[in-house]
Input
Amino acid sequence: MFGGDGTMNSKKRSKAYRVDDPGRFRLSDFDPAGDGRLDKDEVNAILVTDIERLREHLGIERWLVFGGSWGSTLALAYAEAHPQRVTELVLRGIFLLRRWEIEWFYQNPGGCAALYPDLWECYIEPIPEAERSDLVRAYYARLTSNDPKVVTRAAKAWAIWEGATSFLRLNPDYVARFQEDAYAAAFARIECHYFINGGFFRSDNQLIEDVGRIRQIPAVIVQGRYDVVCPITSAWELHRAWPEADLEIVSDAGHSASEPGIIDALVSATDKFRDS
Output
């Protein structure tokens, strides 16, 4: 299992949580390496290939794959490349890395910005008006700058924008994570690097186009109704292409894996597959 979003030992809604049963699962957590300054070959090696190398290294024949948000992107890409190695999938906050998803959150004033105009102003503030027609590219230039002050300013604005919009109600403790210089820089650089390169997918809709490779794999998709980071449209379109997968829409949740309704749905999903 990889791509987890935290730790939890029951359905209790606490700050320390896990969505799996460590007594029944052998857990392997995978985080993409790098800081967003990698070339294409290195990026491709880090993703699906390295996940498969991890499975081989651990001597696991087949495994349940778990991923949320960017982890859902990686989980789908891995499963579609190696369907014979996946027993089940648990996915949360679906992100298919399509252009419209990136523009909704990082570019379009009529997207997430229309819901959070106050926070949007803070997000675009480091970018001069002349460069705001392509905010991702403008941010990429700053996040790869040789000037640490330029990197830090851009990274914090990028990261705080995502952190502040991840919960149904703003969570100051969560946002505080993104105000740390090193964390914000790594977080923003690696996201922006993939976005500027279209995830290194062959087409904008690759993960939907290849869903036929995994339709036989039991799966649960957990999605917050009010997720503004990864809007529910992507989860719905994935489910329409893959009707065999169960779609659990959490009516009172946003994007974060640590919202109570999301936790409960993820626990139910992993419990469902625990004895399979």
The first helix runs from residue 40 to 58. DSSP finds eleven helices and four strands in the chain. The longest strand covers residues 86-92.
